[in-house]
Amino acid sequence: MFLRNSLSRLSRDKVDNNVMMKALQRFSNPLTASYYVAAAVKVARSGHNPSVSTTHTYTTDDLGWKSPEKSETINWPNWEDREHRGERTGTLPYMSAEVLTSSTIVLPPDGEEKPPFSHQAIHDLESFLWVLVRLCLTRSGPGMGMQREFVLDQRSAQYDQGLIDVVQKCFNGTEEEIKNYKRSFLSETNSALFEKNVVAHFHPYFEPLKPYVLKWWSILMLGYKYRGYEFYNIHSHIKSLLKQAIAKVQLDETENSEATIAAIKKMDEWKQRRLTTFSQYASDVTNPETPPFSPPPSFTTPTHRSRLS
After folding, report:
1. What is this structure's pTM?
2. How far apart are CA 15 and CA 62, in angstroms?
3. Which of 8, 64, 149, 208 keeps 20 to 30 A from 156, CA to CA?
4. Residue 60 carries which DSSP code?
5. In the predicted model, is pLDDT for residue 146 greater than 70?
């Protein structure tokens, strides 16, 4: 009862009893559990989730938490006896700030101890997100020859210093620059800063992906802060999100889409140029021409010719 009363003060959204049970399974403190539920519901409500509405009563399935009848009680891992061993591995531009600093950055709820750092699957899923973010920032669509090079030219009307700065700080800078910039996002428990400084610079072609990228980031932040079901089942959460995104994007990608038509046209032009180049190369190899200043080829030396005659 205390948990439900606390939740009602935090959010107008309704949840069923199974959600309460699962939250208390993670946190023995009812107040902390209510904060966790409110945060999880907020993430579930974001983006394009067709299964929920403002009057919806949220279930464990809506939150991506396995229902009690589908799984046994989770034995939450204890990392107190774990130590970081070996060297850090990863590709620098896509690594999480926690991995770069080998420290836990996102603070837990009040009353909970800050866990020691340990490289987890959630860090890998954050890296995967940064790969997608870079594509959305630096490309104008699918295929070859789609780099946004025009934004680098100060004489161009499309010159974008903000985009250049975010790409530099997130991916092309020194390790210290990348670490500090990404750390600033992990210090925020909401996606506002991430949206303003990064997602806002996506090329218009990737506009349909924005809500899903923001939700992906929110899921990561929820996992980092509460270390609940999102933290330990991060793959299933992101996989579900990607399925939603693919279905929605495919629905929007009609032949009447201006962005799609432009992208297809550019791809066709690039393919035609490549085919022309290959055809010319094949012709040169098949029918080599002898330079006019070269003597005709001789298959025998003068001595050989005299002996043959």
Report:
1. 0.75
2. 10
3. 208
4. T
5. yes
